[in-house]
Specification:
Two copies of one chain form a homodimer.
Chain A lengths: L4 H12 L6 H11 L5 H13 L4 E3 L7 E3 L6 E5 L5 E4 L2 H14 L2 E12 L1 H12 L7
Parallel strand pairs in A: 3-5
Antiparallel strand pairs in A: 1-2, 3-4
Chain A binds a DNA duplex through α1 and α3.
DNA sequence: CTCTAAAGTAGTAATAATTACTATTATTAC
DNA sequence: GTAATAATAGTAATTATTACTACTTTAGAG
């Protein structure tokens, strides 16, 4: 693997992002620095970086794949209120592969988990909305 | 919702399948009975049946969506040896939403979990292969 | 039974996400 | 510097899925 400034920029776009960008978002951000980069290059490098273990890919139900700078094992939860994707890491999820392995006899190599729900904020907002019959307080 | 023989056939294709067919597989099977059915009709009805709670959709990482006749909650594991998708239902997975809810403060509405690994058979095969340095016994 | 409104279909086009192809360019080891 | 090779830009192709539209089917009222 040779150096390329495009790949460096793609990696940095993932490392510097605060969220979990998809290829399109990475493309938009890298274009600020390298305006003539092509979307294909972004895809190729994202996948290459995943292959080399430098970033991770998140498979989203009904959405385009996202990319993650965090390499330590964790899972994700998508808030249907604010449409943000959050990291979660609970003891149970960390042990889940071993548990399933024992209970099923399969050898577990990996897993993809995405929860859907409402984050604390959105949960609270809905509660208030409910109490006020949909009329929001100013 | 009015009756249609196309929808009935689509539902039956899912109910009678032993695995977890995707839209294309359902299409192929329904065409044996209704040769002029269109793929769009298959997709529309599959999604409609999911919406009405009569079947479920499985979101597969890097693969097309699949459909499931089983309505009781369970999760799935994909064997990378034989490329089959199996149902799993362990106590831990059944409680996972409540556990995550408690530990994170989110309100969990649903989740999508797919494990990747090797089923018992494929695990055994690989072991034998390994022991024999890749030379298979006859 | 026949008529009509609404729902559904076939066939096709469009879209979204992603991968593949190819001529040109950049990197790197000598 | 030069040659081998990896990488890129730009474009085309692919896959999975949804949207559109003219025609057909269903089902309820008269």
């Amino acid at each position: 693997m040779k150096y390329s400034k495009q790949r460096e920029a793609v990696l940095n776009a993932v490392l510097w992002s605060n969220g979990h960008p998809n290829a399109e978002t990475v493309y938009e951000n890298v274009r600020k620095e390298i305006p003539h980069i092509s979307l294909g290059t972004v895809y190729r490098n994202l996948n290459l970086l995943v292959e080399k273990g430098m970033i991770k890919k998140i498979y989203m139900p009904s959405q385009s794949d996202r990319f993650d700078k965090e390499l330590e094992h964790h899972d994700h939860i998508y808030c249907e209120g604010c449409h943000q994707l959050f990291d979660i890491s609970t003891s149970n999820l960390n042990e889940i592969n071993q548990i399933v392995e024992k209970e099923t006899g399969f050898q577990i190599l990996s897993h993809d988990i995405v929860f859907q729900g409402l984050c604390k904020n959105c949960r609270q907002e809905r509660k208030i909305e409910g109490e006020n019959y949909g009329i929001k307080r100013i």
